[in-house]
TrEMBL record:
<dbReference type="InterPro" id="IPR009057">
    <property type="entry name" value="Homeodomain-like_sf"/>
</dbReference>
<feature type="domain" description="Mos1 transposase HTH">
    <location>
        <begin position="7"/>
        <end position="53"/>
    </location>
</feature>
<dbReference type="Pfam" id="PF17906">
    <property type="entry name" value="HTH_48"/>
</dbReference>
<protein>
    <recommendedName>
        <fullName>Mos1 transposase HTH domain-containing protein</fullName>
    </recommendedName>
</protein>
<dbReference type="InterPro" id="IPR052709">
    <property type="entry name" value="Transposase-MT_Hybrid"/>
</dbReference>
<dbReference type="InterPro" id="IPR041426">
    <property type="entry name" value="Mos1_HTH"/>
</dbReference>
<dbReference type="GO" id="GO:0005634">
    <property type="term" value="C:nucleus"/>
</dbReference>
Amino acid sequence: MDSSRSAQRAVIQFLRAEGEHVSQIYRRMKEVYGEQSLARCTIIRWCQRYEAGRVNFKDLPHPGQAHVVTNSATILAVDELIRQNRRITTRGIAVELSISKGTVHHIIHKKLGYGEACAQWVPKHLSDNPKTTRMGICLTQQFLH
């Protein structure tokens, strides 16, 4: 059984169109969905919305700043700044590109996969050659001690 919010909203819309009372809708939803059921106040709110003429049961876009800054051009610009100066700070990148520090942090860590080591930006995941080199050095050190 699909207990997602949008599926439950569709059920509420259907039952309200049939003329069911809000309390009856809540009881039926609780029987079918159990603990996954929407709260009573949420069901009341959605019933009011449907009575006011709303036909869509999906979420509307929320207000706020859109993530239009995180595009490929910005990601490439951040990567280029890091490659030019591995010791550059997120604040320095933000000032240079006129974007927020949070966006810079998201691009560096999530999009580019960099981590900070010894105050320098380095890739979090090594390729096969550096892994093999490090493994060889570790094994050599282990046999020496």
